[in-house]
């Protein structure tokens, strides 16, 4: 295989980083999506170099599409849970409902390929090596106990989300483990034999994938921000350090779920999944399953993600209602249709254009409110609310306690206007300089 094809993934990833650092659109807003597909392509080419054929080509385009649809459906399920947990939210996603929905779907579609491709490559390299342990006796009764425990791990966080939210990251794995065991293959079957190597590799793959997710998210403009109770101060990238403990069990959940999908012939079999026993299925069944999965994604996207989890979109100057109409027109004339254009490549030229067109006092006020709008993805809607409450710069946030600011915003909010969550205010204030 040509060494140039091996370099295609890293080259694509490097290009995504470079264009993002220049803050060029659409690469700045869509950076996470571009970069993560670069990571998947890189791992896929490493697998091709090792085995002679890439996993994407082995699955085929239709098969890889099934992997992506299964991935998106799975993550939208966790978005549904997050409606109650409120552990994260999204900022500066693409403006426009269609673009936002397509970008969100494609981003969530990278979860399975990320984990499974990394796991497969680690298996190719036999790293970490073999690991033997006691054989686990898993009877039908113990399977029912695992499913009962999984059900509790799913229900209890919905009742007490502030304290029991970590349990959701093991819930579906426990619920589906007995189903996976009945396929005759998989992690549970290996534990029955005392072989802990596949489980350890999956845990490591989850941690590697998590580090990739969080590092790419850190550099992205459209990103997620965590509001995890008790662990919000000590972070690596955007993730609280303790949160990285959730990625390994989440990888196990994804692996168990994927094996069940393979068993039902709703996903392509490769590597360790190729030996899974499959039940008969026809194309009509697959089409129905795909249609139901996409319908579920669309419903959750429109009823949960868009109205509740997405907290800001790309900040269009035309929607910056705290500015005078003449100032908004000048912004457009100077090439700042979106306020994010006032940072990164060519930002100096745009600010010079604004300086030539606006009085000095107006320019100073514009700089302050733009900084406020861009601070932690606050966005134009919340900036209008903050300006109405008397805050005009990020430094103004540091003078408030979250509870007091929340009450003040409620006082000045218009009927039906959405208020930021208290957890969001804590993020804004803490990162504006308050200890």
Query: How many β-strand runs?
Result: 4
Q: Work out the helix count.
A: 20
Mean pLDDT across all amino acids: 91
Low-confidence stretches: none
**Biggest sheet character:** 2 strands, antiparallel
Listing every helix as H and every strand as E from the N terminus to the C terminus, the arrangement reads HHHHEHHHHHHHEEEHHHHHHHHH
| Helical content band | 55-70%
How would you classify the helix and strand content by structural class? Answer: mainly alpha
Which word captures the global form?
globular
Give structural attributes:
two-stranded antiparallel ribbon, 20 helices, 435 residues, single chain, globular, 4 strands, 64% helix
Textual characterization of the structure:
Helix 3 runs antiparallel to helix 11, helix 7 packs antiparallel against helix 9 and helix 11 crosses helix 12. The chain is mainly alpha-helical. It is 64% helix and 3% strand. The strands form two sheets. A two-stranded antiparallel ribbon has the order 1-2. Strands 3-4 form a two-stranded antiparallel sheet. The chain is built from 20 helices and four strands. The model has no long low-confidence stretch (mean pLDDT 91). It folds into two domains: 307 residues, no CATH class; 114 residues, no CATH class. The radius of gyration is 24 Å and the shape is globular.
Show the helix and strand layout.
Blueprint: H1 3-6, H2 8-21, H3 31-51, H4 55-85, E1 88-91, H5 97-108, H6 111-124, H7 140-159, H8 161-164, H9 168-182, H10 187-192, H11 197-219, E2 223-226, E3 235-236, E4 239-240, H12 247-263, H13 283-309, H14 325-333, H15 347-357, H16 360-374, H17 379-388, H18 394-397, H19 402-412, H20 422-430
Antiparallel strand pairs: 1-2, 3-4
Helix pairs in contact: 2-3, 3-6, 3-11, 4-5, 4-6, 4-13, 5-13, 6-11, 7-9, 9-12, 11-12, 16-17, 19-20
């Amino acid at each position: 295989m040509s060494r140039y094809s091996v370099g295609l993934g890293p080259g694509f990833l490097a290009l995504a980083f470079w264009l993002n650092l220049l803050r060029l659109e659409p690469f700045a807003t869509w950076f996470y999506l571009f970069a993560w597909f670069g990571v998947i392509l890189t791992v896929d080419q490493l697998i091709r170099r090792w085995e002679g054929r890439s996993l994407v080509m082995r699955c085929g385009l239709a098969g890889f599409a099934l992997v992506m649809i299964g991935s998106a459906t799975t993550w939208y399920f966790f978005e549904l849970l997050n409606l109650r947990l409120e552990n994260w939210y999204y900022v500066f996603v693409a403006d426009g409902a269609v673009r936002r929905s397509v970008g969100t779907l494609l981003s969530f579609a990278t979860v399975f390929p990320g984990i499974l491709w990394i796991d497969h490559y680690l298996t190719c390299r036999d790293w970490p090596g073999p690991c033997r342990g006691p054989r686990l006796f898993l009877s039908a009764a113990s399977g029912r106990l695992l499913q009962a425990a999984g059900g509790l791990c799913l229900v209890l966080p919905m009742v007490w989300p502030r304290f029991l939210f970590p349990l959701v990251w093991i819930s579906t794995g426990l619920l589906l483990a007995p189903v996976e065991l009945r396929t005759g293959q998989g992690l549970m079957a290996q534990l029955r034999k005392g072989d802990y190597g596949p489980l350890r590799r999956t845990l490591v793959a989850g941690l590697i994938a998590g580090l990739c997710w969080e590092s790419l998210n850190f550099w992205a403009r459209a990103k997620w921000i965590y509001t995890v109770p008790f662990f919000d101060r000590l972070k690596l990238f955007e993730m609280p350090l303790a949160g990285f403990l959730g990625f390994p069990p989440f990888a196990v959940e994804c692996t168990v779920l994927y094996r069940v999908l393979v068993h039902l012939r709703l996903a392509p079999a490769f590597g360790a999944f190729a030996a899974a026993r499959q039940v008969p299925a026809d194309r009509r069944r697959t089409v129905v399953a795909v249609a139901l999965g996409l319908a579920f994604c669309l419903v959750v996207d429109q009823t949960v993600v868009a109205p509740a989890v997405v907290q800001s979109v790309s900040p269009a100057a035309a929607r910056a209602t705290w500015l005078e109409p003449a100032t908004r027109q000048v912004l457009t004339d100077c090439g700042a249709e979106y306020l994010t254009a006032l940072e990164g490549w060519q930002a100096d030229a745009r600010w010079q254009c604004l300086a030539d067109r606006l009085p000095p006092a107006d320019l100073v006020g514009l700089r302050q409110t733009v900084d406020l709008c861009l601070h932690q993805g606050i966005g134009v809607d919340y900036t209008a609310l903050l300006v109405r409450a008397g805050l005009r710069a990020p430094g103004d946030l540091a003078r408030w306690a979250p509870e007091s600011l929340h009450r003040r915003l409620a006082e000045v909010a218009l009927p039906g206007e959405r208020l930021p969550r208290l957890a969001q205010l804590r993020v804004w204030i803490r990162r504006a300089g308050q200890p």
